[in-house]
Amino acid sequence: MVRALLTGGALAPKTAVMTERFKGSFTQQEPLPEAAIEAALAVLKHGRLHRYNTVPGELSETALLEQEFAALTGAKYALAVASGGYALATALRAVGVRPGDPVLTNAFTLASVPGSIASVGAVPVFVGVSDALTIDLDDLAAKAGQARVLMLSHMRGHICDMDRLMRICDDAGLTVIEDCAHTMGGGWNGVASGRHGAVACYSTQTYKHVNSGEGGFLITDDAETAARAIMLSGSYMLYERHLAAPDPAVFERVKYVTPNISGRMDNLRAAILRPQLRDLPAQVARWNERYRVLEDGLRGTPGLTVVERSGAEEFVGSSFQFLLAGWSEAAVREVVTRCDARGVELKWFGTPEPHGFTSRYDSWRYAPEQSLPESDRVLRGLLDLRVPLTFSPEDCALIARIIRDEVGAVWQRGG
Questions:
Q1: Which residues, 6 or more positions from 3, have their beta carbon under 8 angstroms from its beta carbon?
Q2: Which of 77, 327, 341, 363 falls between 20 and 30 A from 378, CA-CA?
Q3: With contact defined as beta carbons under 8 Å apart, do 250 and 227 qualify?
Q4: In sequence order, what are the beta bridge partners of 219?
């Protein structure tokens, strides 16, 4: 018998037996470490919040943060900025994207990625999503000749086969900008996330891997790209106060033709990020412990597909996704509603209308309309949840039991 949930048939209402309920918050992060609080107080006491406001002999917190982030990632140059989205738009400008240029990017990502493309007057061209929730490399190969730049989003921390992707891009002459908002601390085949492309951008917004409320980084090994980015960020002629920056001679070639589009990070945010960067490897291990508990608890659930990770992928499990492949809209909505009634907040990336931070490529109407039926199929069944480190492994086991119960209840009733 074909299940009602697969055909879109009506589902009779049923009250779940709620033996367990989760009482935690999916938006509550851990407090900042004491070292970050002390560093913030020191900046507040001296009052020099602006990154270029220093006393003789002083290195600013922001310049030191950039130096430390460059060392962490292995990049030659690093720039700290006001947000991850600002980093993306700055990267596009720095590699020479002009108004009207097509830029390839993922169909499955958050709105800030195509938004950054549109913000510089360029045109997003979407590449499909695979069942592994990574960019569809076959679709990328087919579209590689349509643009000079790929803005690759490692959406929700899923990293594609970067070796194959770079072969496709190198053969087509595509410059790769990596959006690493969800992969700071991750990697592919021993290479840190962000070190395959020409430029990489990171976010330090509250729900990312280090927390400054808002903020971001841009890294590159290319001296002129770095110099343009620093000038774009609003350095004026103070670029010599950067530590992870090119030689001043490089700025002589770009400083008169690069506009100031101010988006600097300040010393207060830099001060609270520096201790968090030092803690990042330990935090990654804690996230992945929780991710594995969710994964183990949901694997084998009838009707539910766990997204299996490649052995080459060094991921950071700060969020968790699963698929209800082939389910009807009504059935997916019911799972979301039932889980919410038991305290588990799921986000559905297949929703026809944008909701909160979730939206689909066809929601972004500033981009030309595209038809991506295979991506539509994947997104229709895609559910997502945050995994803040305020959750314990026991919390994650409870969350998995609740999801398993509610998916199972809807699945069974469809038969």
A1: 411, 414, 415
A2: 341
A3: yes
A4: 78, 200
pLDDT of 3 reads 44
- Count the helix, strand and coil residues of the chain and give each as a percent rounded to the nearest 5: 40, 15, 45
CA atoms of 265 and 285, how far apart (whole Å): 28
Non-local (6+) Cβ contacts of 165 within 8 A are: 135, 137, 140, 152, 176, 196
Q: What are phi and psi of 149, to 5 degrees?
A: -135, 140
In the predicted model, what is the mean pLDDT of the chain?
95
179 forms bridges with which residues in the sheet?
A: 153, 201
One-letter amino acid for residue 325 of the chain: A
- Three-point CA angle 264, 269, 272, nearest 5°: 150
Model-level pTM?
0.94
Tell me, what DSSP letter sits at residue 23?
-
What range defines the domain where residue 328 resides?
A: 4-31+280-413
DSSP letters, 164-186, are HHHHHHHHHT-EEEEE-TTTTT-
For residues 273 and 216, the answer to whether their CB atoms sit within 8 Å is: no
CA atoms within 13 A on the CB side of 395: 18
What is the number of other CB atoms lying within 10 angstroms of the CB of residue 413? 15
- The residue out of 246, 275, 304 marking a domain boundary is 275
8 has pLDDT over 60: no
Q: Is residue 103 within a helix (H) or strand (E), and if so which, with residue range?
A: strand 102-106
Would you state the structure tokens that stand for residue 267, as one six-digit string?
């010393």
Q: How far is CA 257 from CA 5, 94, 235, 253, in A?
A: 59, 11, 14, 8
CB 235 within 8 A of CB 227: no
pLDDT at 17 over 90: no
Same domain for 259 and 373, yes or no, is: no
State the pLDDT confidence band at 355, using cuts at 50, 70 and 90: confident
Q: How far apart are CA 173 and CA 149, in angstroms?
A: 8
Residue-level pLDDT at 352: 86
Last residue within a domain, chosen from 275, 302, 319: 275
* CA separation, residue 204 to residues 64, 94, 208, 269 (Å): 16, 21, 6, 9
Q: What is the CATH number of the domain that holds 257?
A: 3.40.640.10
Mean pLDDT computed over 325-351 = 96
SS3 call for 353: coil
Closest of 401, 79, 85 to residue 228, by C-alpha? 79
The total number of residues written for the chain in this structure? 415
